[in-house]
Specification:
Helices cover 23% and strands 45% of the residues. The protein is built from nine helices and 14 strands.
Length: 441
């Protein structure tokens, strides 16, 4: 005789209480059973709650959210009062972009006397889903941290011209680093198109080595237009950069980004940009307006998402600078590879490597009077990060909501510039730690 599903679910519910803490986002997949559940097993036993739960956890851990959502939907249909399963389902729907569905499921959990952690997660993801469905959306991001460089004279803007010491005069130093970004989006029509405006500021302030105390502020306005398998985003921008608190460069121009979906996992990415650069002489570099001129750059790449938890991008790069003085005119080409892996519970691993070959037209009479520079630059970076909430949960510490979602990131970078001009031969090893708070309203 078939058992009553409610009686069968009692033991399952108690186990699922612990799972649902991790169930916010695909984060819930903390421990997948060693025994893989196949879809054929689900078809054979669609009412088996334990099997569906195991299958949902397995699929979330593998980044296959569609399959997980289907299993969770069956679970809440069979057990409408299974609050932990519904929370899990609502968050998976949010990750899939089904915002109306996510709001529906999360609202059903109002006044259900959830455990405190689950209630915090419900409120958080309901607010996120509401914000993403508003016609006017605003976002802010604030970062603050520290970095340490083995050769900070060559950190930051490659065109700054501040670092004129040779690599033999390396002086390691530490710095305060950070930034702030604000972005607003306004829907136009009902096809997903929107206007946007954003500002962005970044800074490095070293303690001893002054040449690369760099502050850059920029503003951008544009639009995003969605078509079948296509997103086109034209924009205009302007920026100003300060080196050792002296303004040394102003940029203004425009560009466009294009994203074309080739398949469910692969996108074609194209980006073109043109900017007029206006340089000024500073207290430690008299080059000034010899660098003025148009900088045209572009990139073409492919982005592959084998699962919802992994993203790989390979991009070809090109730039052409036409300066007033040919010693600062150049052409460059390069390649960049990046990957992002989501590790669950908000944790991530980011890897990047880039190679660029830049050739100048004539000697610049600054680094050399006889040879036109040829720089071959290699850059590599690895970073890991996690929300403070995840880190402190390992010690059974519950943080206040205001700081629990702050992301701690730790990174290490390596830069090597191989040049035919000895003053531009350098290496730099850098380590950094950064705290980032994101706000949407």
């Amino acid at each position: 005789m078939r058992k009553n599903p409610k009686l069968r679910s009692v033991g399952i519910k108690s186990k699922f209480q612990k799972l649902a803490l991790a169930a916010t986002v695909f984060i819930c997949a903390t421990s997948v059973s060693a025994q893989t559940v196949t879809f054929d097993q689900i078809l054979a036993q669609p009412d088996n709650l334990q099997l569906n739960l195991q299958y949902a956890r397995q699929e979330v851990a593998s980044g296959r959210l569609q399959q997980a959502a289907a299993a969770l939907e069956r679970m809440v249909l069979l057990e409408p009062d299974w609050d932990s399963a519904r929370l899990f389902y609502g968050v998976v729907l949010y990750r899939l972009g089904d915002l109306e569905g996510a709001k529906r499921e999360l609202r059903l959990l109002e006044n259900r006397d959830l455990p405190s952690q689950q209630e915090r997660d419900r409120v958080r993801y309901l607010a996120l889903a509401k914000n993403r469905t508003k016609s006017l959306r605003m976002f802010a991001r604030f970062s603050l941290g520290a970095r340490y460089d083995s050769n900070p004279a060559f950190v930051g803007d490659d065109d700054a011209g501040a670092a004129i010491a040779s690599a033999n005069e390396e002086e390691s130093d530490a710095a305060v680093t950070g930034g702030a970004k604000f972005r607003a989006e306004l829907d136009i029509g009902s096809s997903g198109n929107f206007l946007f405006a954003e500002t962005n500021t970044q800074f490095n302030e070293f303690f001893d080595v002054d040449q690369t105390d760099l502050i850059t502020s920029s503003a951008k306005v544009g639009a995003a237009f969605h078509g079948p398998n296509l997103i086109v985003s034209p924009y205009a921008f302007g920026s100003v950069s300060y080196l050792q608190h002296d303004r040394f460069r102003t940029q203004f121009g425009g560009g466009a980004k294009l994203s074309y979906t080739l398949s469910s996992q692969v996108e074609l990415l194209i980006h073109g940009r043109a900017a007029y650069e206006n340089y000024e002489a500073t207290s430690f570099s008299a080059v000034g307006n010899q660098r003025d001129g148009w900088l045209k750059s572009g990139s073409v790449g492919l982005q592959w998402r084998p699962t919802d938890k992994q993203k790989f991008t390979l991009t070809g790069l090109y730039a052409d600078k036409d300066a007033d003085f040919d010693g600062y005119s150049y052409k460059s080409a390069g390649v960049q590879a990046r990957s992002l892996t989501l590790l669950g519970k908000g944790r991530f691993l980011s890897l990047q490597t880039q190679y660029t070959d830049r050739e100048y037209e004539e000697p610049d009479n600054f680094y050399s009077f006889t040879e036109a520079r040829e720089d071959r630059r290699f850059f590599a970076r690895a970073a890991v990060g996690a929300p403070l909430e995840t880190l402190f949960a390992n010690f059974d510490v519950e943080l206040p909501e205001a700081i629990s979602d702050i992301v701690l990131q730790v990174g290490v970078s390596y830069t090597n510039n191989n040049s035919n001009v000895s003053l531009r031969d350098y290496n730099n090893v850098s380590g950094d730690i950064l705290f980032t708070k994101r706000i949407s309203f």
